[in-house]
Amino acid sequence: MRKQVGWMAVAAALVVAACGGGSSGSEGSATAATGGGPTAACPTEGEPLDTARLYIEHNATDEDTGVHGLVGGEAWSSLCLRDPAGRILFTAVPAGHLGDLGLADLFFESREPENSEYPIDTLRSEFPEGDYTVGTVGHDGVARIATARFTHDIPAPVEILSPEIVEDEEAAAMAVTEAGGVVVRWAPTGETVAGDALAVTGYEVIVTKVDHDDPHGFSRPVFDVHVDAEAAELAVPASFFDPGSVYELEVLALEESGNQTITIGFFTAG
Known about the structure:
By secondary structure, the protein is mainly beta. The chain folds into two domains: about 5-150, no CATH class; about 160-270, Immunoglobulin-like (Sandwich), CATH 2.60.40. Helix content is about 5%, strand content about 45%. It has two helices and 17 strands. It has helices spanning about 95-100, 120-125; strands at about 15-20, 30, 40, 45-50, 50-60, 65-80, 90-95, 105-110, 130-140, 145-150, 160, 180-185, 200-210, 220-230, 235, 245-255, 260-270. The strands form three sheets. Strands 1, 4, 5, 6, 7, 8, 9, 10, 13, 14, 16 and 17 form a twelve-stranded mixed β-sheet that branches. Strands 11-12-15 form a three-stranded antiparallel β-sheet, with no helix packed on it. Strand 5 (about 50-60) and strand 6 (about 65-80) form a beta hairpin.
């Protein structure tokens, strides 16, 4: 269970175009068509944009992989993403009242197909390593640019050592922890999924209560902590848990370009 994408609530007011890898946009065009709606300006130079990230998320348990992105900075009325060859991959234009207000931050996730359908080697081929360029036209009319360094350095998954977990939440009743808090322990990783050496920059531990009364999940209990690369355990306090409830545990290995690999399991609080 990954974090929800906040901007999906206003998707109806955001005109988005995911452009193919053809020749359109590969010659530095100024605008990109968005299916008959507004067009997105695609500047190639301008003032610095605060944040631009593009990275791979690999789920080692579910064996699926996708591309995530994050843009942040001054409010914009048009956004464009280009690959290292200059081809337009994505444009966005807030419309209607959202266009009048403007957007400042955007997080997106691609579809995450199973690796049997979309192998990691295919992702590497279709998304080459290099600098991807994000260009925005601000709500103030100023063009801004940032580059996101994209690599294929996908961490190998960690092994969760404790608590005892199962991969199926339906079977989590068989993995009951002792009463009290939980100490999450894992075997650190130091290589990529391809077996090459890798410097992990940290780990993220997420514990989420599976069943919760809030229909929209905004108040769902979630324990989410980042720790440094030397850490191999993290204590979750007893006050977080509701005895007898099922929890999802995720341990993510993170590397310096932002790529991350998730190991997932379920357990029941004692």
